[in-house]
Amino acid sequence: MDPRCIPERYFNLxxxxxVVHRNAGGNVRHALRxxxxxxxxxxxxxxxxxxxxxxxxxxxxxxxxxxxxKARVAREHWADVDRITFGANxxxxxxxKGDVAWVRAHPLISDRLKQGCxxxxxxxxxxxxxxxxx
Amino acid sequence: MDPRCIPERYFNLxxxxxVVHRNAGGNVRHALRxxxxxxxxxxxxxxxxxxxxxxxxxxxxxxxxxxxxKARVAREHWADVDRITFGANxxxxxxxKGDVAWVRAHPLISDRLKQGCxxxxxxxxxxxxxxxxx
Lengths: 134, 134
Hints:
alpha+beta, 3-stranded mixed beta sheet, Beta-carbonic Anhydrase, Chain A, 34% helix, homodimer
């Protein structure tokens, strides 16, 4: 979601060449619905999971975001806040590895897409993208 | 998520000027976690919900996607498939209106962002963006 990122540019792709899901942290666990749709509508054989350096999710803790939201909502909604996992992150490479492992183990994702799933880190400063060995 | 869309271009914005969440159908209900994070990390006063013409979600039914996924997974996982709402859509303007109404009624979203929430339709063919009156 970071304003400094344009996913189409990661792999020198142009308009029309890639389906893009974007969320905070680039967390693939929140894209299962989208993956299901894409697998049904199109013939998709590659899934690139890209997290980027200086990601906002590395800058907060779960408690910090939960506390911030709770501070401005009525107490009756605090249980709803506690049910949200905001996805604070401690290690970029480990989070990419975890996402790829999640895809490869997920029973609702096709074997084809599992085999075509790779993980990457995009470096905000250099503009380079690096494959993560999983 | 559509390959023909680059959200940064909708409002003639450049890199660094907008935080972007993208999902199938542009459905804001799946962005609550992301909105919570953005509200905690940044001072955000505007939320633009944009759905686009010729969207894939207008082209399928829930039963179709569920059936397609079930056809390739073991029966023991069918209940998991049934728990996913893929977000088939029948009317673009109504879906934008519904998303804006959802934001404005949501107890975990700030009053500032509710007031700054607007809905739009992006026309894939003309490249024009049109505000939806809600």
